């Protein structure tokens, strides 16, 4: 059975998206250790799962020459990985190594999880995270807390109706003020 983890950037006040959908999470102060961590994380094993909005943002940036110049290791990893995009409206995807998952998200992810294969990592895609959390399909929550207060926005667990008990597996802080925590069921 495959595992499913999420990697999410959240503000200090718990939002993954601001009220205006601006890319607030790109404002981290320069920190060589943090950049090294992000690059190594992008080189890890696994397939990526996105919702359509996050997929559109990722597909517009990572295959670009700008991404290759700015973060070459991350761009290489993102482009090489197998990607899944959950969408009821997309029929096909242009970004290399991408498969569209249509229809019932929960049934599709349960089927994917039951198969042998690499772990699945959900990047961003807060509405996907909320649905998978509600269905008890997430094994590990990787949260990068960025030291900014947004005041309003969308939380990762909008729509969840049950309590989810987690235990801290590891944590790491960076000089730029970001804190990375790994939580497991």
Explain what the structure shows:
The structure is a single chain. With 185 residues, the protein is of the alpha/beta class. It contains six helices and ten strands. The strands form two sheets. Strands 5-4-3-6-1-7-10-9 form an eight-stranded mixed beta sheet. Strands 2-8 form a two-stranded antiparallel ribbon. A hairpin with a 5-residue loop joins strand 9 and strand 10. The longest helix has 11 residues. It is globular, with a radius of gyration of 16 Å.
Share in helix: 25-40%
Which strand order does the major sheet show?
5-4-3-6-1-7-10-9
Rg of Cα set? 16 Å
Spatial shape: globular
Main sheet: strands, sense, barrel: 8 strands, mixed
SSE topology string: EEHEHHHEEHEHEEEE
SS summary, helix count: 6
Number of strands: 10
Instruction: Compute the separation of the termini in Å.
Output: 16 Å
| Chain oligomer state | single chain
Determine the structural class based on helices, strands and strand pairing: alpha/beta
**Taking all residues together, what is the mean pLDDT?**
91
Poorly predicted spans: none
Beta-strand percent range: 25-35%
